[in-house]
Design a protein that fits this description.
elongated, Pdz3 Domain, four-stranded antiparallel sheet, alpha+beta, 446 residues
Length: 446
Amino acid sequence: MLLTLASLVIVLGVLIFAHELGHFLVAKVVGIQVLRFSLGFGRPVIAWKRGETEYWISWIPLGGYVKMAGLEEEGMVGELEGGKADAAIDPARSFDRQPIAARMAVILAGVSMNVLLAFVIYAGLAAVAGVSRFAMTPVDSIQAGRLPAWAQPLLTLHRGDRITHVGDDSLRTWDDLEERIEKAPDELRLRVAERAEPLVMHLPSGDTAARHELLRAIVPLFPARIGPVAPGQPAHRAGLRGGDVVVRINDDTIASWLDMVARIREQPGHPVTLVVLRRDSLIRFTVVPETIDSGGKRYGFIGAGANPPTVRDRVGLGAAIVHGGRQTLAQIVNVVTSVKRIVAGEASTRELGGPIAIAQMSGQAVRLGLDWFLNFLAFFSVSLAVLNLLPIPVLDGGHALFLIVEAVRRKPLTPTLRMRLTQLGMLVVLGIMVLAISNDVLRLFR
């Protein structure tokens, strides 16, 4: 419990500080008077003043704000932001007196800092520890239905066989296998450990899709070691943790992750007994898989991710920067896609998580290791950036929308209208928070 709470404090503290620091620094650069910098909402627990700016750590740790001259909110929003600041306001340095471009830069600085933080984490991990790749493991099985006719020699592979070379190139990771097959000549030669002769296949010339089909047909073998466990899902409710290795399900010995998934999928809504290895102890759990309907079929799901073996490939600074950019962009796309699915009704609002879910995920990431925790921190930083850009007044996206309307109308919204829209936006945000926290509580008692 203490580890989970500590990890939550670290995650929220780092991400809120980075976000608000972005607003603060750019506001200072463009000459706007900054009245208060606060981590948290409400009245301060710790407060000090330097120059004209108050610095607070407030008692509601669910966000933060930078109070600038010209943006002093009133009513409910103003109370959440701790009321009026003590410093005398300089009208010439008010937020509303600045050019639209300067104000937009201040508004977007927070989300930009969160994206930058994610990029720095991803690129820094790659530069210091290397890029994490899925280690080359033996073959679990070959999916015959996916196999092109010219690739039938692969059907001679059995569980435990290890592909060691593509042509003369040795393999260290599954990424290596993918890259070598994509670049291989039309006569593809795969060498398998303890076999004298290679497997020889003749690929259709220039057919990239055929090579991808070949790769998808080869299923890797790796232990049934559990990675992230989704809060509130059957695995979490049963007490499974990241790092647990499933060795038996009911009376069946589990030799691989694919074995485990197959047994779980066969038991929708029916209790199954899992025996897992945790450190040096065997522990028994009873899990009831949720029922998922897909394509007219029903299968079981417990909400546990895989934790396959990985290796670290050392890369130069340039490659680390490229990797950081790609990872950041990929996570932005993932979060935007998730938000679109919820808004479109394609995903349930039950997927929303509040502080309890965040704490649980933070604690899991810490237990899985520093690498997992830093990756979670980067992902959550991107999530915070994307959600803050939603066009809801009180969020950064809402403020940006006000500026766009001002640019189109050639005059700002009236203070009264802006205050009412902001109050409405606050109600929407509070409603989302109540829904997320309700989901957290319901998961605890399901």
